[in-house]
Design brief:
Amidase signature (AS) enzymes, 16 helices, EC 6.3.5.7, 513 residues
């Protein structure tokens, strides 16, 4: 029930960001914490392949600076894992690709710079699907990451390495990026919290572009209050990214007590189109039903809503995202960025073709071809233009149920739903190799997540517990998704915290290494 197992906000779990931050502020050694963490990474990472690169010496030096009182802030001493698609001046950014192997950025992404300015310690960068294209990390040129709940299974993707690093206890929080579900889906499959903020909430400066109108940076955390805290540090206007919103960042996001204050009269929408018992694994249906029960017990009002255009989400997304990917990835031409073929055949065209042919993996090539086709003259109107129009219809569905006019902060009481409750994924973690030969079934992983990206609104996956073991599967985590209006993260996170409190402590996967 709502209050029995609730974690009081003034007693954050010791392994949470807030718990660790408070322990360090009370005198615990940040250096010892980082040293122990590096030991765990050394033991478990060879098997799990969560990190692609670890910054051991720099992390220890930064932790020592925290212990000497030279580095402070709301995240002082907290070890955070980055994703291989974020530029960082302390390491390389390969985007999970051969194309950018060894690429050094001369600057750090704004989100990482802000975390460091708040005292956080970037311990390494995590494995991901190549150029964030995938749902399992199996398209990484650096091998797949393994799910710590069952290493025969994928952790999801594209931010799979980040989710694994956190779930396996190899960091206190991790960053991901979400273009169509790449934070929320791996969070659900690994049993952690994953937040995709509103488009424009966190700067994309220093994020290597995948699909620029959809990409958004966000945190993976163990608790909802941790996600709110990380959001508060990273969010806000950035002169280096013209798509960031010049809106104030609510101070309550950094206040765990405010996040845990239940919302009276919360209106939770249940989108009919997302709750199809035939499409969803029984454990996923049960998870949503449990969440409905928790909300009801907390006094929320549950209302069925319709998002009729959501069923066009997958085709719309895969036209628009591949179009944008084909354009963004044109810069890897063997001249300016990335791999250049050692073949010295005949001329520029051959050099470009060889360089791209050698360094891009199959999924990247598939997306470039699909996107180039969608943008080609003759198909541009039928595919790209039409997908843009459907995108607007999908967004309008959300604005109608939230009672919002569009891209503006929600009114205090818009009369519509505060949040929508639905699954994050149709099932639990699938086996390595199970979907690699069937791109369409891989793409269907995103069926419940892409629409929030198309609409530019916020979504979060919150673990509800473990699905019972099956004949060939151990107990595996399940999550549910809450979707909120643009710039409505505060209410979204408070609703998520209500679920988390009703759930009680989330089990951890078996230790590895
Ligand atoms: N799985 C989705 C895709 O392959 C989402 C990727 C992402 O969010 N980066 O496109």
């Amino acid at each position: 029930m709502m209050t029995q197992d609730a974690t009081p906000p003034d007693a954050a779990p010791a392994d949470s960001v807030i718990g660790l931050r408070d322990a360090i502020a009370a005198g615990a050694s940040a250096r010892e914490g980082v040293a122990a963490l590096l030991g765990r990474i050394g033991a478990a990472n060879p098997e799990l392949n969560a990190y692609r690169e670890v910054y051991a010496e720099a992390a220890l030096a930064r932790a020592e600076a925290v212990d000497r009182g030279e580095r402070s802030g709301p995240l002082a001493g907290v070890p955070i894992a980055s994703k291989d698609v974020l530029c960082y001046d302390g390491g390389t950014t390969a985007c999970g690709s051969r194309m950018l192997r060894g690429h050094r950025s001369p600057f750090s992404a704004t989100c990482l710079a802000r975390l460091e300015a708040a005292g956080a310690i970037v311990v390494g960068t995590c494995n991901m699907d190549e150029f964030a294209l995938g749902s399992s990390t199996e398209t990484s040129a650096y091998g797949p990451s393994l799910n710590p709940w069952d290493t025969a299974r994928v952790p999801g993707g594209s931010s799979g390495g980040s989710a694994v690093a956190l779930a396996a206890g190899l960091c206190s929080a991790a960053l991901g990026t979400d273009t169509g579900g790449s934070i929320r889906q791996p969070a659900a499959l690994c049993g952690v919290v994953g937040l995709k903020p509103t488009y424009g909430r966190i700067s994309r400066h220093g994020l290597v572009a995948c699909a620029s109108s959809l990409d958004q940076v966000g945190p993976f955390t163990r608790t909802v209050a941790d996600a709110a805290l990380l959001l508060s540090v990273m969010a806000g206007d950035d002169p280096l990214d013209a798509t960031t919103a010049p809106l104030p960042v609510e101070p309550e996001l950094a206040d765990a007590e405010a996040i845990h204050r239940p919302i009276r009269g919360l209106r939770v929408g249940l989108p009919r189109q997302y709750l199809d018992a035939e499409a969803n694994h029984p454990a996923v249906q049960r998870a949503v039903e449990r969440a409905m029960g928790w909300f009801r017990d907390a006094g929320a009002e549950l209302v069925e809503v319709d998002l009729p255009h959501s069923r066009f989400g997958i085709p719309t997304y895969y036209v628009l995202m591949t179009a944008e990917v084909s354009s963004n990835l044109a810069r890897y031409d063997g001249v300016h960025f990335g791999h250049r073929s050692p073949e010295r055949t005949s001329g520029l065209d051959a050099m470009t073709r060889d360089s791209r042919g050698e360094a891009f993996g199959d999924e990247v090539k598939r997306r470039i071809m699909l996107g180039t086709y969608a943008l080609s003259s003759g198909y541009h109107d039928a595919l790209y233009e039409r997908a843009l129009r459907v995108r607007r219809l999908i967004a309008n569905d959300f604005h109608r149920v939230f009672g919002t006019g569009g891209f503006e902060p929600p009114a205090a009481s818009g009369g519509g739903c505060d949040v929508l409750l639905c699954p994050t994924t149709t099932g639990t973690a699938f086996k390595l190799g199970e979907k690699t030969d069937d791109p369409l079934s891989m793409y269907l992983n995103d069926i419940y997540t892409v629409n929030a990206n198309l609409a530019g609104i916020a979504g979060i996956s919150v673990p509800t517990g473990l699905a019972p073991a099956e004949e060939d599967a151990p107990e595996l985590p399940v999550g549910v998704q809450l979707i909120g209006p643009a710039f409505g993260e505060l209410r979204l996170l408070r609703a998520a915290a209500m679920l988390e409190a009703a759930r009680g402590p989330m089990p951890r996967p078996p230790a590895r290494g």
